[in-house]
Amino acid sequence: MSDILVHQEQGVLTLTFNRLERKNSITVAMYDALATAIEQAAGDPATRVVLLQGHETIFSAGNDIGDFQNAPKEPAGKPEDRPVWRFLRAIATFPKPLLAAVCGPAVGVGTTLLLHCDLVYAGDNAAFSVPFVNLGLVPEAASSLLMPRMFGAHRAAEALLMGEPFMAEAALEVGLANRVLPPTECNAFARQQALKLAAKPLSALVETKRLLKGAQQAEVLQRMDEEGALFGRMLHEPAAREAFAAFAQKRKPDFSKC
Question: What are the beta bridge partners of residue 49?
């Protein structure tokens, strides 16, 4: 069974993380599938809205740690052609409504991708975290730019520097989530909202979204590139290697020499 389920109905393209045995952690192949689906949806007149969702117990544990550990220092091809960056650019530039339903843990990119969604619905069991510093890394998905604007400077600093989880009500308070619902109702509610949007005139939706987000798009993409270059370099530095080794060995990392 595919790790990304793709379902198209009534103008809504639903992309579901389906790797529960690994807590919906995202592999290179999954990024590729997501990027391709969203890139195609952007130009497909039959797709009016895209909805991202996970299971009622977990949205995503973030990037697959094994992929981090096995990442080559200088991957073949241009950086922008790599699946993860294709996915991030696809969601940052997607011209139509992009929704997410989030239940349970949303770690790393599981949280930062939400900054590019137009509407986010959270289960009351949702736990958001951006623990990049704890892995010896820097933020991605232009979160270092977008989180201070959404959360405020101090709350963004707390989230990104401490890397500790914050719950659904806190996400609602800072504007990351639109509504908090019981987990068993979250995906269905998000789908109903997506169907409502799909019934509206697409041209008006697209132009309204352009007015809302278009002015910052170039800045967002530039920050993504800057973060991506730092992220790729730091992935192979001692702090990240120690963090990944500690994760594999189920011990606390020792950053005293990093």
Answer: 12
Q: What is the spatial distance between Cα 178 and Cα 133, in angstroms, rounded to a whole number?
A: 27
E strands, 139-212, in order: 166-167, 179-181
The answer to whether the predicted template modeling score (pTM) of the entire model surpasses 0.90 is yes
DSSP, collapsed to helix, strand or coil, labels residue 2 as: coil
Q: Are 56 and 21 in contact (CB under 8 A)?
A: no
Which H or E element spans position 43? helix 28-43
Segment 185-218, tens digit of pLDDT: 999 999 999 999 999 999 999 999 999 999 999 9
Among residues 234, 224, 229, 235, the alpha carbon closest in space to that of 115 is found at 224
Question: Where are the strands (E) in 103-140, listed by range?
Answer: 105-107, 119-123, 127-129
Pairing verdict, β 127-129 and 166-167: antiparallel
The CA-based angle 218-221-224, given to 5 degrees, is 150
